[in-house]
């Protein structure tokens, strides 16, 4: 049924197709319980991510409520949970520092337009081509940057000025501020981290983040501990949603924030589709990449209009949704409704939440973000994968995330081309693969090519094929083992055929599939320049019939 809907309406949300399958009270109950579970996880995390991104905590909640609702309602995954993500902390914070809050909102809005356009242009499939070492490298780099940004609230430091964004500038500033460490804050941070780890080991089914943050808030309220809280730093959070409004727009401002918008869109598309793939692996379902990108785009536009930050699919919350027994996108929509209820009912309580507790939550999130076994395996696997991994990590830490992705992707592509070029093989028959019975010198030279004939392998394949002696009368290139022929390879074969023709050698291309033959014909490889045959034997038989070879019976075999 889902395939039929996708063929008729490729951008139809999964919500519609899921409801069309049948939806009743048991499914609604499962979705509401899953939504409540995810909301409990998302509540402290959304505020923590917003604070770490350099904006007020309520903006993280706006993002989870408005963006998360639209991602689930319009997206291409049954189980995707949208909201603010730790991967965006560095980018959002840098954008706020460079362009202010209004510039960040405009960049988020523009990124939403880019994401929706990418989905409508059906580019979702191509986003999945990001090499694995790149994703592992920039995820580890982001985790390190996020942790560095949480050192101030974890230790209660007081910096002389604004906290620098780049790591090379941040570390000296943090070192200089170490004498201002707040011992009460350090004790609270350590207690929260220990409690989070202990609950994960002893009670993994509990909502440990909410429990630890709530207990820390009660402890601060009851003891009057001298630590920074949401109330002291931000004055609390509003008890409702803002009225949608368009951030100031001008041509100059758009041009200024365009690089940030592109980075938001690029990272958002990668993070969202990766999260959807994780959900597919856990459930056996299949998401619709392009529908998901369109939904992410609309969600980011709406989030920006309501004062939120970047929206993306969140892997941890999506996995929690699946494990909690969600049935449909209504689970994700209900998670946003539960968060809205919290703002309407319990907003004043947020003022007591200590920033150290939220920083402890993010510190554990950073630890979980780093794919430690995968990182170690890539370092051991090959020099190419290790290089891509370390370059991406280094650029993420010391340069720019979008630059890291682009350079890492480029290195990965070059590595792939190099490996593919090595996989192409050209086998030539023995010295006399087809010898006449009377013992005359062979008149036919035969090559068998296997693998993908593309621009990366053209030089090696061309050098192997370009060995035609004067006594040869025909050249047979067997393409039965070829999986791909691109324009560069077709041009190389055409040049080889012209050279053979000038020397009086007939060229036969044998065993080519119909799609490969069409590609070759498009590039001029047709009669009388070359002839096609179903097999080597058929090509030899045609050459004999046309008088291009002697009448004797051929013996021997092609190598391989």
Automatic annotation (TrEMBL):
Residues 442-543 form the STAS domain. Keywords: Membrane, Transmembrane, Transmembrane helix. The chain crosses the membrane at residues 32-53, 59-76, 81-98, 104-124, 136-161, 173-199, 211-237, 257-279, 337-365. One of its GO terms (cellular component) is membrane. It is found in: Membrane. This is SulP family sulfate permease. Gene3D superfamilies: STAS domain (3.30.750.24). Pfam families: STAS, Sulfate_transp. It is a multi-pass membrane protein. GO terms for biological process: transmembrane transport.
């Amino acid at each position: 049924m889902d395939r039929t809907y996708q063929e008729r309406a490729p951008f139809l949300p999964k919500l519609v197709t899921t409801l069309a399958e049948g939806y009743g009270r048991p499914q609604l109950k499962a979705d509401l319980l899953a939504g409540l579970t995810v909301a409990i996880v998302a509540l402290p995390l959304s505020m923590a991510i917003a604070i770490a991104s350099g904006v007020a905590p309520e903006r993280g909640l706006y993002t989870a409520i408005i963006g998360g609702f639209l991602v689930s309602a319009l997206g291409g995954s049954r189980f995707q949970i949208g909201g603010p993500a730790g991967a965006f902390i560095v980018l959002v914070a840098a954008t706020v520092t460079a362009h202010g809050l209004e510039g960040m909102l405009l960049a988020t809005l523009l990124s939403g337009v880019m994401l929706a356009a990418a989905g409508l242009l059906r580019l979702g499939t191509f986003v999945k081509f990001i090499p694995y070492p790149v994703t592992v490298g920039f995820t580890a780099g982001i985790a390190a940057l996020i942790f560095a940004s949480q050192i101030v609230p974890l230790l209660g430091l007081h910096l002389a000025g604004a906290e620098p964004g780049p790591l090379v500038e941040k570390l000296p500033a943090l070192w200089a501020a170490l004498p201002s460490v707040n011992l009460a804050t350090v004790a609270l941070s350590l207690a929260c981290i220990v409690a989070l780890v202990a609950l994960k080991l002893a009670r993994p089914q509990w909502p440990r983040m909410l429990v630890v943050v709530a207990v820390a808030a009660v402890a601060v309220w009851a003891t009057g501990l001298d630590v920074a809280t949401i109330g002291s730093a931000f004055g609390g959070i509003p008890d409702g949603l803002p009225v949608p409004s368009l951030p100031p727009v001008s041509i100059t401002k758009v041009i200024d924030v365009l690089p940030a918008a592109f980075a938001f869109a690029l990272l958002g598309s990668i993070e969202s589709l990766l999260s959807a793939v994780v959900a597919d692996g856990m459930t056996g379902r299949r998401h619709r990449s392009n529908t998901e990108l369109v939904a992410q785009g609309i969600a980011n536009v709406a989030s920006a209009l309501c004062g939120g930050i970047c929206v993306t699919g969140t892997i941890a919350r999506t996995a929690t949704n699946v494990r909690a027994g969600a049935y449909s996108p209504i689970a994700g929509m209900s998670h946003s409704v539960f968060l809205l209820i919290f703002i309407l009912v319990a907003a004043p309580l947020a003022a007591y939440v200590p920033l150290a507790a939220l920083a402890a939550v993010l510190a554990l999130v950073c630890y979980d973000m780093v794919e430690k076994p995968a990182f170690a395996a890539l370092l051991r696997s090959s020099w190419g994968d290790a290089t891509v991994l370390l370059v991406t990590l280094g650029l993420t830490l010391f340069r720019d995330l979008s630059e890291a992705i682009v350079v890492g992707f480029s290195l990965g592509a070059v590595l792939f081309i190099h490996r593919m070029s090595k996989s192409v093989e050209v086998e030539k028959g023995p010295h006399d693969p087809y010898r006449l019975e009377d013992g005359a010198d062979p008149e036919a030279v035969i090559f068998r090519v296997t693998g993908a004939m593309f621009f990366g392998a053209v030089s090696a394949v061309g050098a192997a094929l370009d060995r035609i002696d004067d006594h040869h009368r025909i050249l047979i290139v067997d393409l039965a083992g070829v999986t791909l022929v691109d324009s560069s390879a077709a041009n190389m074969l055409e040049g080889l055929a012209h050279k053979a023709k000038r020397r009086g050698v007939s060229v036969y291309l044998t065993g080519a599939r119909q799609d490969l033959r069409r590609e070759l014909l498009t590039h001029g490889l047709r009669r009388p320049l070359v002839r096609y045959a179903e097999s080597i034997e058929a090509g030899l038989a045609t050459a004999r019939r046309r008088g291009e070879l002697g009448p004797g019976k051929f013996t021997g075999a092609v190598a391989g």
